[in-house]
Each structure stands twice: as C-alpha cells, then as structure tokens.
Design goal:
Layout lengths: L2 H33 L6 H33 L15 E4 L3 E5 L3 E5 L2 E7 L3 H6 L7 E4 L2 E8 L1
Parallel strand pairs: 2-4
Antiparallel strand pairs: 1-2, 1-6, 3-4, 5-6
Length: about 150
C-alpha cells in the first residue's frame, strides 16, 4: 500500500469513527428523551427535555458535517499522482508533510508525520496549484515544496 493509500484509508477510518460516535450520541439522547417521565417538578422536567432537544440538534449538525467530509473524501482518488498540488495530493515540504483532503490532524506512517488538512485551510490554500520547487510564505517563513504524490 502506498503512502497516499494509507493516508486515505486512515482518513476514512477517522470519518467513520466520528460518524459512529455521533450516531451513538444521538441514540443515547433519543433513549433519554423516551425515558424522561413527567415528574411533580414540571418545570425541571421541561428544562431537561429542552436541554436534550438542544443536544440532539447539536449532534444532528455534527452528523451533517461528517456527511460533508464523507462526500469530500469520496472525491479523492488515492491512485492518482499529481504534478500540481490539488485535492488528494501528498505534499512534502521543507517544513512538514501534508495530505490535502480533510482536516483529520496529525497522522504518523512509518515514522513520517503527515498533517491531513482540508483544502480550505490557510496552508492548503497556499500550496494549491503549486509544483515541486515552488516556495510559499507562511508565518514569516519560506516553505519549499520538495515532492508531490
């Protein structure tokens, strides 16, 4: 398995883990809402239900974000090597290594550290459409692109 395929697979796992966590949260909230019974302290009951409703709405929004990440990740083809930095590129620079796909944080493969970043991040915006040998300015420093996969 190539580095790009491994990064892609780990990003898929990241999205799936987040999806499962949010699904479980929604299930727990639904069960809590179902088990909430009217008590003599009516206001307390209504406040509890309202809080659970807010939590369910928040989890629903998180679920929608995860769905967007899945759609974005499906646009990445780990089999393609790019000449210019694009969605799905693995970019080696003098500062760090990046996988332009989704924001999944730091990933270590065979003692190499990569940062999975969204194409919307400031770093990715600087790198997009650049080629090997190009330099970009980031935080008062110059970063040179060494290799693109």
């Amino acid at each position: 398995m190539t580095i790009k395929q491994e990064l892609y697979k780990l990003c898929l796992e990241y999205v799936e883990n987040r999806f499962q966590t949010i699904q479980n949260t929604i299930k727990e909230i639904q069960e809590s809402l179902g088990s909430e019974t009217k008590s003599s302290a009516g206001d307390k009951h209504e406040t509890g239900r309202a809080m659970l409703q807010l939590e369910r709405e928040k989890a629903g929004n998180q679920l929608a974000e995860i769905q967007k990440l899945k759609v974005l990740l499906n646009k990445v083809n780990p089999e393609i090597t790019h000449q210019k930095v694009a969605l799905g590129s693995v970019v080696y620079t003098t500062q760090s290594n990046y996988f332009i796909a989704i924001s999944a944080g730091e990933i270590v493969i065979a003692s190499n550290t990569f940062y999975a970043v969204s194409a919307a991040t400031p770093m990715a915006q600087l790198l997009l459409s650049k080629t090997v040998g190009d330099e970009v300015l980031f935080r008062n420093g110059t970063i040179k692109i060494l290799k693109i996969l």
